Amino acid sequence: MAKDFEEKIDKCLELESCLLDVARCEHVGDKTKLMLILHRFGSRKVLCEEIDYQRREVENTGRKLNWTLRNAKDILETMSIRCGTCGGTGKITKSKYLRERDSIQTVIVSDKCPACDGDGSVEIPSEISTYVTLFVEAVAQLAALSQTFMQFSGDAMNMIA
Length: 161
Ligand SMILES: [Zn+2]
Description:
Strands 1-4 form a two-stranded antiparallel ribbon. Strands 2-3 form a two-stranded antiparallel ribbon. It folds into two domains: 2-79 and 125-160, no CATH class; 84-123, no CATH class. The model has no long low-confidence stretch (mean pLDDT 91). The protein contains four helices and four strands. The chain has 161 residues and is α+β, with helices and mostly antiparallel strands. It has helices spanning 2-28, 31-41, 44-78, 126-160; strands at residues 80-82, 91-100, 103-112, 121-123.
């Protein structure tokens, strides 16, 4: 996720610096260079649309980071994770086939999940909490970085777009 995030920010920065160049050329009246840059995109409008798209991508990744952060914080708080065997329900449902004279009946039976003993969650060893803490810190930093980037690039784009 971090790599994906980095790529999206890089792409966004590249496009925004193109738009900055465009604004600079417009300002000084360098039509040749302006055409050269815009040739790549077709028009200033297309470039702005691509920036909008890329900014939304960064925003979405920021949302995913915040979601991951909340989950990791929950894990730290409860020191448990959702049971993977029963998916958190605490029950395992199975179909059983009952043969009765000339027909077969399907019955759904649910048993207590053996992995979590019906709790729906399993405790994590305390040693792991150190790693989860480090993970939470790293993700929190990335999420903050994404917010700063969006703010900064939003302000910059408002000025020149
Ligand atoms: Zn379970």
